[in-house]
From TrEMBL:
Residues 282-650 form the Glutaminase A central domain. The lineage of its organism: Bacteria, Bacillati, Bacillota, Clostridia, Lachnospirales. Residues 75-201 form the Glutaminase A N-terminal domain. Residues 5-60 form the DUF4964 domain. This is Uncharacterized protein DUF4964. Pfam families: DUF4964, DUF5127, GtaA_6_Hairpin.
């Protein structure tokens, strides 16, 4: 097994709250933590013929078992250790198979252990894993805890949680869950216990394994029952795994029973995905996809509304904590379009719903639908007199969706009108193309028509406003944003054509073509395009142009694509090309989108390689950041974000352009 190096290794990846990472090269070199960096201690020890060694979590009082390997795969992280005559392999498997929505929704991760002899002799091994009470609350202050052990048919489960439960008791970005119950469950051969006799409560699972030359193995499941997942416009919703009245013990039991089948499915899925990534670009791209896969999925919560419609609600991690952000869904969607469009529909439904509420007075699309875990109306750009406060971690915003028509609660200059309209239209067209019909959007055509009208009025040369790269500030005459507007108009033409409104479709296609011709005259500056119209010295990534290729609309010339790729290669820094000429920082998701502007595999490898180098060399020990400095490799901000689903754009391009 090779020894991979990534900034932080995903261990448990269920949702934005039940998330555990190891921010070190060796599993024993650092405390495990939540994606926010808050310590959530999980420890692992092995006693070999009476000799105790730590292999997971930092314990300076105990010698470690030497780590000899680490492999990151799409649904699993596999560690290997050797010493005392044995080899130990630990696999953290989160079975996030996008082809199986119920499985994705389960809040369970498998931890598998296998031992074998390396010296020909038999060795008695005892493995012990513990999880600390900190999993059950936010912040460093100790809480009063309770717990116990369930004895069930086919498994035993230790559990713990706070004595005083306050489901959905806070909202925020840099926060962890403060309610619910943690479980560790194993088959009867493994012993599970709840310990509250020391200063801190812990759960423990242990089992005995014989390390012979053939090897033996076992596993347990770590699970979390959040009791209440999201507040969705007044309705408290739970994960899809609760359908049919299932309890957490039901799902743990099913997970234990189906472990073998789930593990096999995951291995086959991983092999296939990694083969596709290798074929598309190469080994560097395999590394990128393998690390991004679980992160992109587990930055969401998968629930159903009261009518049974799927909702796939993202948390905008370490950017503001918003829930269901449109310009986070837009970059993330390539991964989900590859496997099941229902995930993308689940991103869009909340936005359509809020856009119809009286409080949303604008003729452009919203930015978000609240702050996680409250989908209670957009919070981005709320005026201070309507409840916005800094600092505001933990603050539950007012239920803005209940506000009446006429309430002027949003600052117009803090909106992203062209951005969000273009995003929603392109997403609608992409879903319809993948489905082969417009069934999903038929009921929303009036909203989409209003939004395309906005793009026709204001998108050709956007005024000073924010776009998804809002950290860069307001920008007028944004050429990349104008390209999005043009492709949003083209997306509407596609929807009209697919729904049998051919004549109308032709008119919008003609307008998109006229806008693209105007764009070309104003944007092209020599062998590249400008960041902003009228600023000939400027330049920036034109990642939105990829939809011209995927739609097959031919609004922009091949010369533009070739010129852009050549320019990006010229401007390349050690860890990628900058987002634009203003700063040296970059966005990894957009780099892979721009890599799709060429069909030359070698050029794609050149553009993707610095992102893989960032994973190998960055000093920022955090989950896969999408916003970092292209010279130093240091994270600027943003970690564990769902936008890394955008790194799968090359695979989506292959699916749409090269699959018969």
């Amino acid at each position: 097994m090779k020894m991979e190096r990534v900034p932080s290794v995903p261990l448990i990846t269920s949702d934005p709250y039940f998330s555990l990472w190891s921010p070190a090269d060796e599993l024993y070199s650092a405390d495990t933590c939540h994606w926010t960096g808050k310590v959530k201690k999980m420890m692992g020890y092995i006693t070999i013929d009476g000799v105790k060694r730590v292999f997971m979590g930092r314990d300076e009082t105990c010698p470690h078992l030497e780590q000899t390997g680490l492999e990151i795969r799409p649904t699993s992280s596999v560690y290997r250790f050797e010493g005392e005559g044995i080899q130990l392999e630990i696999r953290f498997l989160s079975p996030l198979l996008l082809t199986d929505m119920e499985l994705v929704s389960r809040p369970c991760t498998y931890v598998e252990a296998a031992v074998r002899s390396t010296d020909g002799a038999d060795h008695g091994c005892v493995l012990v894993f513990t999880m600390d009470e900190g999993f059950c609350y936010d912040g460093p202050l100790k809480k009063d805890m309770t717990g116990g052990v369930h004895r069930a048919a086919g498994f035993n489960a230790a559990w713990m949680g706070q004595i005083r439960q306050t489901p959905l008791g806070h909202s925020g970005d840099d926060v962890t869950i403060d309610w619910g119950y943690l479980y560790m469950a194993a088959q009867p051969g493994g012993e599970v216990t709840y310990n509250n006799e020391d200063d801190r409560s812990t759960l423990k699972v242990s089992f005995e394994l014989k390390a012979d030359t053939a090897g033996t193995e076992s596993f347990f499941a770590a699970a979390y029952d959040d009791m209440a997942s999201v507040m969705y416009f007044g309705d408290v919703l739970r994960g899809i795994w609760t359908k049919g009245g299932r309890t957490i013990l039901d799902v743990i039991g099913i997970s234990i029973q189906e472990h073998g089948a789930a593990a096999q499915k995951c291995s086959l899925f991983e092999d296939r995905l990694m083969e596709q990534a290798e074929s598309a670009i190469g080994e560097d791209y395999v590394r990128i996809c393998a690390l991004a896969y679980r992160q992109a999925i587990a930055a969401h919560k998968l629930v159903e509304d009261t009518q049974g419609n799927v909702l796939f609600l993202s948390k905008e991690c370490f950017s503001n904590g918003c829930i269901g952000t449109v310009d986070v869904s837009y970059p993330s969607m390539p991964l989900f379009l590859l496997y099941n469009t229902e995930y993308v529909k689940g991103m869009m439904r909340p936005v359509f719903k809020f856009a119809r509420m009286p409080v949303w007075k604008f003729d452009f699309a919203p930015h978000d639908v609240g702050r996680y875990p409250y989908a209670s109306g957009q919070v981005y750009g709320v005026k201070e007199e309507y409840g916005y406060r800094e600092p505001h971690e933990g603050l539950v915003f007012p239920m803005y969706y209940n506000y009446p028509k006429g309430e002027d609660i949003y600052s117009l200059d803090m909106q992203m009108p062209v951005e969000e309209c273009g995003d929603m239209l392109i997403m609608a067209a992409a879903v319809s193309i993948m489905d082969g019909n417009t069934g999903f959007v038929e009921a929303e055509m009036d909203l989409l028509e209003k939004w395309v009208s906005y793009l026709l009025r204001f998108g050709e040369d956007p005024g000073e406003q924010l776009c998804t790269d809002d950290f860069a500030g307001h920008l007028a005459h944004n050429a990349n944003l104008a390209a999005k507007a043009i492709l949003g108009v083209q997306a509407w033409s596609i929807l009209l054509s697919m729904s049998g409104r051919g004549e109308e479709a032709k008119w919008y296609e003609k307008r998109a073509k006229e806008m693209s011709e105007s764009w070309t005259k104003r944007a092209v500056q020599g062998n590249h395009t400008v960041l902003a119209f009228g600023s000939p010295e400027s330049w920036g990534l034109k990642y939105n142009l990829v939809w011209d290729l995927l739609f097959g609309s031919h609004l922009f010339s091949e010369d533009i694509f070739a010129g852009e790729v050549s320019w990006y290669k010229e401007k390349m820094n050690k860890f990628g090309m900058p987002l634009d000429n203003r700063q040296t920082y970059t966005k990894s998701d957009w780099i892979l989108w721009t890599a799709c502007l060429t069909s030359d595999k070698e050029e794609m490898r050149e553009l993707a390689a610095p992102v893989a180098r960032y994973l190998r060399e960055t000093k920022s020990r955090v989950p896969f950041s999408d916003w970092y400095d292209s010279c130093s490799g240091d994270e600027i901000s943003f970690q564990n974000r769902s936008v890394q689903g955008g790194l799968f754009m090359p695979l989506l391009k292959e699916r749409l352009l090269f699959t018969p």
